[in-house]
Amino acid sequence: MANESGNERWMEGSSTLFRKRLERREADQKRRDQGRRAIKGSDVALDYEDQNGIWQGGLVSQDLGFDNRIIEVDCHIYPPKTHSVTHKHNEAIIIVLRGKGFSYINEEKIEWEPGDTMYIPAGAWHQHHVLSEEPAMVIAIKPLPIQEYLGEMNIIYKGDQPTYNRDYRPGTFLEELKKIGKES
What we know:
By secondary structure, the chain is an alpha+beta fold. The protein is 17% helix and 30% strand. It has three helices and eleven strands. The protein has helices at residues 16-34, 144-150, 173-178; strands at 47-49, 54-60, 72-78, 87-89, 92-98, 101-105, 108-112, 117-120, 126-130, 136-142, 155-157. The strands form three sheets. Strands 1-2-3-10-5-8 form a six-stranded antiparallel β-sheet. A three-stranded antiparallel β-sheet has the order 7-6-9, with no helix packed on it.
């Protein structure tokens, strides 16, 4: 219940429990207010992840100064003519920006191209295959912050190996972004 001022009624309490709770809430709000609100494309750093053979860069994550608590957003670039290792984790949403290929999600083959979106259910074995001569560039949206908070963060690899293209080097995030729609 809220009072006439819109404050929650427990905030009016004088007990130590309520005062400490209010102090935590105010400190939490202060931290959120100081968190990052945006990132420039020129500030996105792409790093190679050898275990999966892909390039990835954080777009919204706590390590970039955001105070995101539920979702995290990354960019993944899969080199041309490669595939990822088969793996599973909690749910994710994948938005395809460039490239063509398919993914196996719990053995179901799903073809994709720019503009397509895939939902990866929690615990689904999946693997991504790039068929095009151009790299695949995707945005991955995952509930990593809340998983970390709940102690549930995990990724399990099936034991197969990805197809690597160690010679492929992407440009900067902005250079790769500008290529969207320019290759076939």
